[in-house]
Design a protein that fits this description.
Length: 1164
C-alpha cells in the first residue's frame, strides 16, 4: 500500500501543479484586465471612426454593431481619453448625431434615437431626457442580469443584460423607476438628473419560491417554465445552520424531505416516502455538479456549496432515470463570475457541544439492582455462572456474596461492602473520564472572480472536530478549484478539481452502555467504578472472572486485567480517506440556438484504516494469553508476544462521460423551445481488502490450536477481499415548449442499462419517461386579479426507478469455511435461485401543483398533490418446496402512496427599519405496500416499526402490538385478549391472528413540516425554526424481567411495578415473578400499553446575526461582515401528545446534546 499511496500523492501533486499553473496566469490577468474592462485609454488624431471603435473593442472586449446608414465609418474623429468609461467615450463620439446605444452582453448596439414630442410646459432642457443609462446590482455590487426596470406612469421599460446594465430612451424627467428582480426587494427610484444611474437591490430573506432558475444536473430551467416539482434552497438558507456535513442543513427546512434519525449510527433520508423494500437502495440520489456522487457525502465542504435543488416528481427527476425513484438531491457548488473583480470570502466558526445527558436515561437505580441480585443469588440463579469452567465474569455484588458463602467474608463485611456500592452511579465516572465537551472548528476561505473570457473559483477548508468521546477526533482538509475559459467566441472550456482528505482517530473505549464495558454477557452494573478516588484506572471483568485471571498461569501469563481508562490511553486506531474528483467540460456554441457539450469526471477515493494494539493493550494481552501453552515453568506463545495490527484498505474509482446537444430558440416573440439530448457512460470499480499483522513472525492461520481456557480454534486472520465492477449506460432526451409565456409543455425520455449479471438482454435496462404541462394563468388576457399577480398551474406524470445491482440473476450460493458437523464435509447454502427475468424497480408519479404570489409579494407559495406507485419492487416470493428454498427475491411487490405539500412564504411586517418574514412548510405523506406475494405471518405478528415489514395494505414501517387488557388485580400479571376473553395464557396470546392485534399505524410521521420566523432590525437578524411531526407512533422502552435477570440491564419502570393489590389502578408495569413464565415479558414488551403517540412540536434552533454592509460611499475594506451565533438541538418540546414525558425523537431518553456555535463571515 505504501507504493500505491506514494503514486496517488504524486499524481495528485502533479494535477494540482498543472491546474494551478494553468490558472494563475488567467487569475493574474483577470485582476489586471478587470480594472480596464469598462475603461478606455486612447489618443487618436483624425482617425477613421471605424478604427476608433476597433481600438475600443481591443481594450474592452465589447463588439459594436450599427448600420452604415447611421454612422459614417470613414468620418475622421479626434479623441484623447484616459481611463474613461465606455459610456462617456460613446457620448463624445456620437454627440449630436441623434443616436443611442444599448449594452447587450458583450455587444453594444448603436441605433437611432426615437422621436420625442415636445413637453407641454417648461423648456426642453429641463424636461426632456433623450435616454437613461444605468446598472442594477445587489447590495455587494454583483450585477443582476434580467432585472426589470419600468418607468412609472409610462409603458416604457427595460431588462438588464449580463452586466446588469439597461438603457431606456424617450423619457422625460422627473423620473420614477420601479426596479424588481426575482428574490430581491422591489425598489422605487426617483431621478431628477441625467447620467449613469446605479441601483442596488436588497435580497429577500428565505424566499426560496422566487428563485428564478433551478438546476437538474443536466440543465438550468427557469422556474416559470418548469412543469415538475422542485425545491431550491439558496446559499443563505443553507448557511443558516452550522455543521460539518452538507445534508444536515436540509433537515427541517426542505419541503417533502424527512430525516429518519431513529438509528443513531446512520440517518436515513426520505423524499415523499419509501418506495422500495430494500433499505440499501432507499436513499435519494445525490448529484454534485452534474454527476452522481459516489462515496461519502460528508467529503463535501458545505462552504463550497452555492445551492441545493431537490427533484421530487417524475418531470423533475426522471432525467436521472433508474436511480431517481427515491428523489434526487442536486448540489451546485460555487463558481466564479465573468466581469467580476477578485472577491475573497472567509468563514470561521467554533461549535461547543454539551456532554450527553446520561442522567436522563431511564436506568434502574443501583440500590434496586443490588436488592434484586441478592434475591436472585438466594434463589441460586447465578450458580451456573459461578460453576462454569469457562470462568465468565460475575458482578461485584455476586462476587461478594460468593466470598461470604465461601467463608472469606463475614456477613457484616459483605453488607458494609455492598451498602457502599448503593450510593455509586457509574454515569458520574463516564461524564468525568469518558465524555467531554465537544469542540468543532471550521475554517473556510475562497477567492473568485473573472474577466471577459475567464472566470475562476479557488477555495480551501479545514475542519477539526473533537467529539464528545475522549480520544475521538475528526479532521478534514478540502481544496477546490473551478475555472471556465471562453477559448473562442464559440468554445468554452471548464476544468475543476476537488481534493478532500479526512483523518479520524477512534481511541475512545466507547459510549455509555456499549459492549466494551459489558461483564461477559451482562450489562455494566450502575454501581461500577472506572477510577478510584485518586483517578487511578480500575479493572472491569469483561471477559473472565477476576478469581480466574488472578491465578491463571501462576504468573507466567501476561496481565489479564481490563482497565477502560488505561485502554483509552493505549488505543491507536486511525483511518484516512483521500478523495480526488477531477472534471473537464467542453461546450461549443454552433449558434445562439444550438450548442454541444462533453463532460467527463474522474473520481477516486482511497480509504485506509489501521488499528495498532501494542502488547500493553488488553486486546493483545488477551489474544496472546488465550493461545498460550504452559509447560512447567515455561510458556509458549502461539500468538507472538508482539504488537497486533489490523489493516484495511479500499479503492473506489469512477469514470463518467456524457455527451449532450442543447437547443434553445425563441421566435416570433411568443414561441420558445428548449431541448437537450445526450448519452452517458458510467463505470464504478470498488476493491478492498483487510488483514491482520502479527508483527514480523509468521503464524499458521489454518491450524487449530488448543485454547488456554479449553476448546480449540484457529488464530484469527481478519482477512477479507472484495472486488466489484458496475457499469451503466444511458440515453436521454428532454424538451420544453412555451407559448406566449402562458403555456408550457415538457417531455423527457431515458433508457438506462447496466451489467446486471445473468438477466436477459432486454431486462438489463428500463425505459423511463415523463410529460408535463404548466399554465401561467396570470398571463391570460382575461385575468384581472390584481391582488394575486402570479398564478401558475402545473401537472406532470412519469416514471423513475431504483436499481439493485447487489442481486444476481443467477443461482447464488454461500460456502461455509467450516465442515458440516454431521458429515465433516464442506457444505454450502443456496441464497437465491436463477431469475433471468430480474429487472429494475419502477416508480410512477403523478404531480399537480399551484404556484401563487400575492400583491407586493406579501404572501407567496405553492400547493402540490402527488400520487406515486412503485411496481416490480424486489421482494420475497414463495417457491415450490421442491426447490429447497422457501422463498426467493423477485420483482413481486408493489407500493402505492400519495401526499400533499404546502409551502408558504410571507412578510408580516416589511418596513425600512424592521422586517418580519415567515415560511411555513406542511407535508402529508401516506404510502403502503399494495402487493406482496409471500404470505404474511398473520399469527403472532408484532412490530416496533424500526425495520421494513412488507405487510399488504400497510405502511412498511408499521407498528403492531398485542391487545392489552390491563394487570391482574390479584397477581399483577399482564393480561391480553384471547378469543375476545381476558387471558394470561402467554403462549397462546403471542400467536393471536393479526385481526386480533392492535394496528397502531406508521412509526414515521405522516404530517410534518416547520415554521421559520426571521426578524430583522437594522443590522440585527434573529431567526427561529419550529418543527412539527404528527400522525405516528413509537414504542417506549420498559422493563423486561428475563432480560433483567440475564443481563442486569434494568429500566426505571422497575420502581413502578405492581407490588400489591390496588397498584393496578395507577400502574401498568407487571409484577416481578421468579421464575418468570415464558413469553410473559414478550407479551408485555410488545403490548399496546407500551405504544405512545409520537405527535409533537419542537423548537429546533435559533440564530442571531449582526451584519455590517459596505455603503454606497463607504471606504471600508469589506463588502460585508457578519458575526453570528447559532444554537441547535434545543430539545424544547412546545407540545407533545404522549403523557409519559418522553421525547418521541429520543424514546431511550438520551437526546442529541445541545450545541452552541459562534462565528464570523467576511466578504472582501
Amino acid at each position: 500500500m505504501g507504493f500505491a499511496a506514494m503514486r496517488f500523492n504524486l499524481m495528485l501533486l502533479l494535477l494540482c501543479v498543472c491546474l494551478v499553473s494553468a490558472a494563475l496566469p488567467a487569475f493574474a490577468g483577470n485582476i489586471m484586465f478587470f480594472q480596464h474592462t469598462d475603461k478606455v485609454t486612447l489618443s487618436a488624431d483624425q482617425w477613421p471612426l471605424r478604427e476608433v471603435l476597433k481600438a475600443m473593442n481591443r481594450q474592452t472586449g465589447y463588439y459594436f454593431f450599427y448600420s452604415a446608414d447611421l454612422v459614417n465609418n470613414n468620418e475622421k474623429v479626434t479623441l484623447h481619453v484616459k481611463e474613461a468609461a465606455v459610456e462617456n467615450v460613446l457620448q463624445q463620439l456620437l454627440k449630436g448625431k441623434g443616436l443611442i446605444w444599448v449594452f447587450n452582453g458583450n455587444t453594444v448596439i448603436i441605433k437611432k434615437a426615437p422621436p420625442v414630442a415636445a413637453p407641454a410646459s417648461g423648456t426642453l432642457r429641463d424636461s426632456l431626457l433623450t435616454f437613461l443609462n444605468g446598472q442594477v446590482t445587489d447590495i455587494s455590487g454583483t450585477p443582476l442580469a434580467g432585472a426589470t426596470v419600468l418607468v412609472d406612469g409610462t409603458p416604457k421599460g427595460a431588462t438588464t443584460n449580463e452586466q446588469g446594465r439597461f438603457v431606456i430612451d424617450g423619457i422625460t424627467r422627473p423620473i420614477t423607476l420601479q426596479v424588481s428582480y426575482a428574490g430581491y426587494l422591489k425598489q422605487q427610484v426617483r431621478l431628477n438628473e441625467t447620467g449613469n444611474v446605479q441601483i442596488r437591490l436588497q435580497k429577500e430573506i428565505l424566499d426560496i419560491t422566487s428563485v428564478s432558475v433551478v438546476a437538474t444536473g443536466y440543465q438550468a430551467i427557469p422556474r416559470e417554465r418548469a412543469t415538475g416539482s422542485f425545491v431550491k434552497l439558496d446559499n443563505e438558507l443553507l448557511n443558516r445552520k452550522v455543521s460539518t456535513g452538507i445534508l444536515d442543513r436540509l433537515d427541517g427546512v426542505a419541503s417533502g424531505v424527512l430525516f429518519d434519525k431513529r438509528d443513531a449510527a446512520s440517518t436515513r433520508i426520505q423524499i415523499r416516502g419509501l418506495y422500495t423494500l430494500t433499505s440499501a437502495i432507499a436513499q435519494p440520489l445525490v448529484v454534485v455538479d452534474n454527476f452522481p456522487y459516489e462515496g461519502d457525502i460528508n467529503d463535501i465542504n458545505p462552504n463550497d456549496v452555492e445551492n441545493i435543488t431537490i427533484l421530487k416528481d417524475a418531470a423533475a427527476a426522471s432525467i436521472w432515470g433508474a436511480k431517481a425513484g427515491n428523489g434526487v438531491i442536486v448540489i451546485t457548488t460555487k463558481k466564479g463570475r465573468y466581469d467580476q473583480a477578485p472577491r475573497v470570502s472567509f468563514n470561521s466558526n467554533v461549535t461547543v457541544i454539551n456532554k450527553p445527558e446520561l442522567f436522563r436515561l431511564p436506568q434502574m437505580p443501583a440500590s434496586d439492582l443490588i436488592d434484586l441480585e441478592e434475591f436472585l443469588f438466594s434463589k441460586g440463579y447465578y450458580n451456573s455462572a459461578i460453576n462454569d469452567r469457562r470462568y465468565p465474569p460475575v458482578t461485584p455484588v455476586v462476587d461478594l456474596l460468593v466470598r461470604e458463602r465461601n467463608g472469606q467474608l463475614s456477613a457484616a463485611e459483605t453488607k458494609a461492602a455492598i451498602d457502599k456500592l448503593r450510593s455509586i452511579d457509574v454515569r458520574n465516572d463516564f461524564l468525568k473520564y469518558i465524555y467531554r465537551q465537544g469542540i468543532n472548528q471550521q475554517y473556510a476561505a475562497n477567492v473568485s472572480g473573472g474577466s471577459k473570457k475567464v472566470k475562476y473559483f479557488f477555495s480551501t477548508g479545514y475542519d477539526k472536530n473533537s467529539t464528545n468521546l475522549v480520544g475521538n477526533t475528526y479532521q478534514r482538509i478540502t481544496l477546490r478549484t473551478d475555472n471556465t475559459w471562453q477559448a473562442t467566441r464559440k468554445l468554452q472550456v471548464q476544468t475543476g478539481i476537488q481534493y478532500t482528505q479526512h483523518d479520524d482517530t477512534n481511541n475512545s473505549t466507547g459510549p455509555y452502555n456499549s459492549n466494551a464495558y459489558k461483564l461477559g454477557t451482562r450489562a455494566l452494573p450502575p454501581y461500577s467504578r472506572l477510577a478510584d478516588d485518586n483517578g487511578n484506572p480500575l479493572t472491569l471483568d469483561t471477559r473472565y472472572a477476576d478469581t480466574y485471571t488472578d491465578t491463571a498461569g501462576h504468573g507466567l501469563l501476561l496481565d489479564w486485567k481490563y482497565r477502560p481508562l488505561q485502554e483509552m490511553a493505549l488505543n491507536d486506531k486511525t483511518s484516512r480517506a483521500q478523495v480526488l474528483i477531477a472534471n473537464l467540460g467542453l461546450q461549443y456554441n454552433f449558434s445562439n440556438t444550438i450548442s454541444a457539450e462533453v463532460k467527463y469526471q474522474y473520481q477516486r477515493a482511497d480509504r485506509n484504516s489501521r488499528a495498532y494494539y501494542s502488547t500493553q493493550t488488553f486486546f493483545a494481552r488477551d489474544l496472546i494469553n488465550r493461545y498460550s501453552q504452559i509447560h512447567g515453568d515455561s510458556v509458549t506463545y502461539i500468538v507472538p508476544n508482539a504488537p497486533v495490527t489490523d489493516r484495511s484498505a479500499s479503492l473506489q474509482q469512477g469514470h463518467m462521460l456524457r455527451g449532450q446537444l442543447n437547443f434553445n430558440h425563441t421566435w416570433a416573440g411568443k414561441h420558445q423551445l428548449a431541448a437537450i439530448a445526450g448519452a452517458e457512460l458510467r463505470q464504478l470499480h470498488t476493491a478492498g481488502n483487510s488483514y491482520r499483522d502479527y508483527g514480523n513472525t509468521a503464524v499458521d492461520l489454518l491450524r487449530y490450536y488448543p485454547l488456554f481456557t479449553g476448546r480449540t480454534a484457529t488464530i484469527p486472520s481478519n482477512t477479507d477481499i472484495d472486488d466489484r465492477l458496475d457499469r451503466f449506460t444511458s440515453a436521454y432526451a428532454n424538451a420544453a415548449y412555451t407559448y406566449d409565456n402562458r403555456y408550457t409543455f415538457s417531455a423527457s425520455a431515458r433508457k438506462d442499462a447496466s451489467n446486471l449479471f445473468g438477466v436477459r438482454a432486454n431486462r438489463k435496462g428500463v425505459p423511463l419517461w415523463s410529460a408535463g404541462a404548466a399554465w401561467k394563468i396570470s398571463n391570460e388576457r382575461f385575468y384581472r386579479a390584481g391582488w394575486l399577480p402570479y398564478l401558475n398551474l402545473r401537472l406532470s406524470y412519469g416514471s423513475g426507478g431504483n436499481v439493485n445491482n447487489a442481486i444476481a440473476a443467477l443461482a447464488t450460493i454461500y460456502k461455509y469455511d467450516a465442515s458440516f458437523q454431521f458429515t465433516n464435509l464442506p457444505f454450502a447454502t443456496m441464497l437465491n435461485v436463477a431469475n433471468p427475468e430480474l429487472r429494475w424497480e419502477k416508480v410512477n408519479t403523478l404531480n399537480a401543483g399551484l404556484d401563487f404570489t400575492f400583491k407586493n409579494n406579501r404572501l407567496s407559495g405553492s400547493i402540490e398533490y402527488y400520487h406515486k406507485q412503485s411496481v416490480d419492487v424486489i421482494g420475497l416470493e414463495a417457491l415450490d418446496p421442491t426447490t429447497g428454498l422457501g422463498a426467493a427475491l423477485t420483482n413481486s411487490a408493489d407500493i402505492k402512496g400519495r401526499g400533499v405539500e404546502v409551502q408558504l412564504y410571507g412578510k408580516a411586517i416589511n418596513t425600512s427599519a424592521f422586517q418580519w418574514q415567515s415560511s411555513l412548510l406542511f407535508n402529508y405523506v401516506h404510502y403502503a405496500v399494495s402487493r406482496y406475494l409471500l404470505p404474511p405471518l398473520t399469527n403472532g405478528f408484532v412490530s416496533d416499526g424500526e425495520t421494513i415489514i412488507p405487510l399488504p395494505g400497510y405502511n412498511p414501517y408499521l407498528l403492531v402490538s398485542y391487545n392489552w387488557a390491563g394487570l391482574d388485580p390479584a397477581t399483577g400479571d399482564p393480561r391480553g385478549y384471547l378469543n375476545k376473553s381476558i387471558s394470561t395464557d402467554y403462549a397462546a396470546l403471542i400467536k393471536n391472528p393479526l385481526a386480533e392485534q392492535v394496528i397502531h399505524g406508521p412509526a414515521l410521521p405522516t404530517y410534518f413540516g416547520n415554521v421559520l420566523n426571521t426578524f430583522s432590525w437594522r443590522n440585527i437578524s434573529l431567526s427561529a425554526n419550529i418543527t412539527y411531526r404528527l400522525g405516528y407512533y413509537f414504542r417506549r422502552n420498559t422493563i423486561a424481567y428475563n432480560t433483567l435477570f440475564a443481563s442486569g440491564a434494568g429500566h426505571s419502570d422497575y420502581q413502578q411495578r405492581w407490588q400489591q393489590p390496588g397498584d393496578e389502578k395507577h400502574t401498568n408495569v407487571p409484577s416481578l415473578v421468579y421464575p418468570n413464565p415464558a413469553y410473559r415479558d414478550l407479551f408485555y414488551t410488545y403490548s399496546s400499553i407500551t405504544v405512545e403517540k409520537g405527535d409533537h412540536v419542537r423548537w429546533e434552533d435559533v440564530r442571531l446575526n449582526y451584519t455590517l454592509k459596505k455603503g454606497m460611499n463607504s471606504r471600508t475594506f469589506f463588502r460585508q461582515l457578519q458575526f453570528y451565533t447559532y444554537i441547535t438541538n434545543l430539545n424544547i418540546l412546545i407540545w407533545k401528545a404522549n403523557k409519559a414525558g418522553l421525547d418521541p425523537d429520543f424514546p431511550s431518553g438520551l437526546r442529541t446534546p445541545r450545541a452552541f456555535a459562534f462565528g464570523i463571515k467576511a466578504d472582501f
